Amino acid sequence: MLVPGMIFLILFKYTPMYGILIAFQEFNIFDGISGSPWVGLEQFQKLMVSDEFGRVFRNTLLISFYKIVILFPIPILLALFLNEVAKMWFKRLVQTIVYLPHFLSWVIIAGLFVNILSPSGGLINEMIVALGGKPISFLIDNNYFRSVLVLTAGWKEVGWNAIIFIAAIAGIEQDQYEAAALDGAGRIKQMIHITLPGIAPTIVLMFLLRIGHLLEAGTEQVLTLYNPVVYETGDVIGTYVYRVGLGKLDYSFSTAVGLFNSVVGFLLIVSGNWLSKKLLNRSIW
């Protein structure tokens, strides 16, 4: 039964790692990996002294940090409050509404928000004008673009991420709630002293996994929403690799950037797991 899964992992996860060699070469698409000259760590040296990469790295960290700080707690709160809803029909309705955006592609969502945020006729700007303000070009203004990224990511994924915490809450023994009710604890106290501690291992697990993807920052999302005007604040590592690798055909440099991204992500998740185990006595492994 394990054979199909092992074959999948070998073919699509481990075999492509052979391409990492490109990061240590001056790769030529016509000569291939075997015929391209080796340059050692030259691509990584270019990476470290590149002013453009410094900006991209800073953008990636800031956008991921905003998403963690603002968006990570929301699915937890949503799961906690949905657990308190007594009317099952209302609970299912809310769940369905907040889950649905997850199944839309970023291309569709980008088109939707381009229209909503349009400075000429967009819903948001119509409201701003009605209140006496001036239209704002959210998608071509560096002051607002990161906020748009956080908003759209939250709209798409918050409901779906809440599923994990709702499932964790469902696994808590109901006897604890009954005992707490007999002792006079209200719903808020039960939430604080039973539900939250009950899902704490799941919260820690999801947080550590999120830390491991700190340099991800939503490449597909940014690609569909940004433009050269907002490269200063919106260009992230994933989009930079895309532009350099495919746009400038600099495969070696873009592979070096991608490898750097992966190594940093690995170190982050290992360090986060160690800290969690040390301070909270909870960890993934």
Automatic annotation (TrEMBL):
> Which GO cellular component does the record give, naming just one?
plasma membrane
The membrane topology of this protein is: Multi-pass membrane protein
Main subcellular location of this protein, as a coarse class: membrane
Choose any GO biological process term that the UniProt entry carries and state it.
transmembrane transport
Q: Where is the ABC transmembrane type-1 domain?
A: 57-272
Gene3D superfamilies recorded: MetI-like (1.10.3720.10)
List the source organism: Paenibacillus aurantius
Instruction: Please name one Pfam family that this protein belongs to.
Output: BPD_transp_1
Keywords, A to Z, come to: Membrane, Transmembrane, Transmembrane helix, Transport
Q: Which compartments is it annotated to reside in? A: Cell membrane; Membrane
Q: Which InterPro entries match?
A: MetI-like, MetI-like_sf
Q: Which PANTHER family does the protein's record reference?
A: POLYGALACTURONAN_RHAMNOGALACTURONAN TRANSPORT SYSTEM PERMEASE PROTEIN YTEP (PTHR43496:SF1), PROTEIN LPLB (PTHR43496)
Task: Please identify the protein, giving its name as recorded.
Answer: ABC transporter permease subunit
Q: Membrane-spanning regions, if any?
A: 6-24, 65-83, 103-124, 194-215, 251-275
The record's similarity note reads:
Belongs to the binding-protein-dependent transport system permease family.
